[in-house]
C-alpha cells in the first residue's frame, strides 16, 4: 500500500470520528439547548409521545369501566322461557327493578294465555303478572323473592348521540349463561333508542345500559337483528317511578 493511500484511509477515519463526536454533541447538548429557546419552544418534538400515552390510558380506562359496569348489573338480569297458547316457545330476558321482586320485561315475552318460567340465577321462583301494556310492549312481573340486586335509571336528558352503551342478556337460562354486546347510540327520541348493535332474536328484552351501569332502555330486535330499545322515559311512565 502506498503512502498516499494510507493517508487517505487515515483522513476517512478522522472524518468519521469527528462526525460521530459532532453528532453526539448536537444530539445531547446543542439541540436540547437550542430547542428550549423561547422562539422554538412550542415546536419541541418531545411532546408527541405524550398524546400517544394519554390515548392508551383512555382506552384502558374505558375497557375497565365496561367490565366494572357489567359486574355491577349482571345479577339483575332475568331469563324467561314462555310457551304461547299455540305451543310456540319464546325466550328472552328482563331486569329486576326492585329488591322485593318486581321485574320489567317485554310484553311479547309474556303473552296472554301463555305459560312462563323465570330464571333468577339458578332459581325459578313463582310469579304473578302485575301489568301488561301491549301497545308499548312492556310488562311488570312480581316474583316471590326478596333482597334482590337492583340498578339505577339513566337520566334521559343526559343521553348523547354516539354515546357508548352495552346490553346484557340471558342465552342459557338453565345455567345462567350471559351474553354482552356493546355499541353506540345512533339516534333517539322520547320513545326509542336506536343503536348500531346487531343480535339474535333470543336477546329480546335484554336491558341496555350506559357505561355507568344505569338502565337506558329495554331492547327489541327486528328481523334483521337491529337493536332498538324502548327508552327509559317510556319505562318510567309505565312503572310509575
Describe this structure in words.
By secondary structure, the protein is an alpha+beta fold. Among the domains are: 75-143, Beta Barrel (Thrombin, subunit H), CATH 2.40.10; 152-239, Beta Barrel (Thrombin, subunit H). The protein is built from three helices and twelve strands. It has helices at residues 3-35, 48-73, 232-239, and strands at residues 77-83, 89-96, 102-105, 115-119, 127-133, 138-143, 164-172, 177-188, 192-198, 207-210, 215-221, 226-231. It has a six-stranded antiparallel beta sheet, covered by helices on one side. A six-stranded antiparallel barrel has the order 7-8-9-12-11-10.
- Provide mean pLDDT, rounded: 83
Q: What is the spatial order of strands in the main beta sheet? A: 4-1-2-3-6-5
Number of strands: 12
Largest sheet geometry: 6 strands, antiparallel
CATH architectural arrangement of the domain at 152-239:
Beta Barrel
CATH fold-level topology of the domain at 152-239: Thrombin, subunit H
Gyration radius from CA atoms, angstroms? 31 Å
Helical residue percent band: 25-40%
Beta-strand proportion? 25-35%
User: Topology as H/E string?
Assistant: HHEEEEEEEEEEEEH
Separation of the first and last Cα atoms: 100 Å
- What is the count of DSSP helices, taking H or I runs of 4+ residues? 3
Amino acid at each position: 500500500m502506498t503512502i498516499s493511500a494510507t493517508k487517505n484511509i487515515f483522513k476517512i477515519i478522522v472524518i468519521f470520528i469527528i462526525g460521530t463526536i459532532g453528532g453526539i454533541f448536537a444530539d445531547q447538548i446543542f439541540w436540547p439547548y437550542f430547542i428550549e429557546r423561547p422562539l422554538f419552544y412550542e415546536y419541541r418534538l418531545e411532546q408527541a409521545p405524550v398524546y400517544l400515552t394519554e390515548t392508551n390510558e383512555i382506552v384502558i380506562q374505558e375497557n375497565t369501566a365496561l367490565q366494572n359496569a357489567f359486574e355491577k348489573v349482571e345479577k339483575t338480569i332475568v331469563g324467561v322461557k314462555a310457551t304461547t297458547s299455540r305451543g310456540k316457545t319464546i325466550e328472552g330476558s328482563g331486569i329486576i327493578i326492585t329488591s322485593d321482586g318486581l321485574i320489567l320485561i317485554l310484553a311479547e315475552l309474556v303473552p296472554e294465555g301463555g305459560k312462563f318460567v323465570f330464571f333468577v340465577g339458578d332459581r325459578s321462583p313463582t310469579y304473578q303478572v302485575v301489568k301488561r301494556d301491549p301497545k308499548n310492549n312492556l310488562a311488570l312481573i312480581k316474583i316471590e323473592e326478596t333482597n334482590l340486586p337492583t340498578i339505577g335509571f339513566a337520566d334521559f336528558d343526559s343521553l348523547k348521540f354516539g354515546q357508548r352503551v352495552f346490553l346484557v342478556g340471558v342465552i342459557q337460562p338453565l345455567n345462567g349463561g350471559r351474553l354482552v354486546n356493546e355499541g353506540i347510540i345512533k339516534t333517539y327520541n322520547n320513545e326509542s333508542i336506536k343503536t348500531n348493535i346487531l343480535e339474535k332474536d333470543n336477546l329480546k328484552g335484554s336491558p341496555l345500559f350506559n357505561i355507568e351501569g344505569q338502565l337506558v332502555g329495554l331492547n327489541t330486535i327486528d328481523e334483521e337483528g337491529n337493536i332498538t330499545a324502548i327508552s327509559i322515559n317510556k319505562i318510567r311512565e309505565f312503572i310509575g317511578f
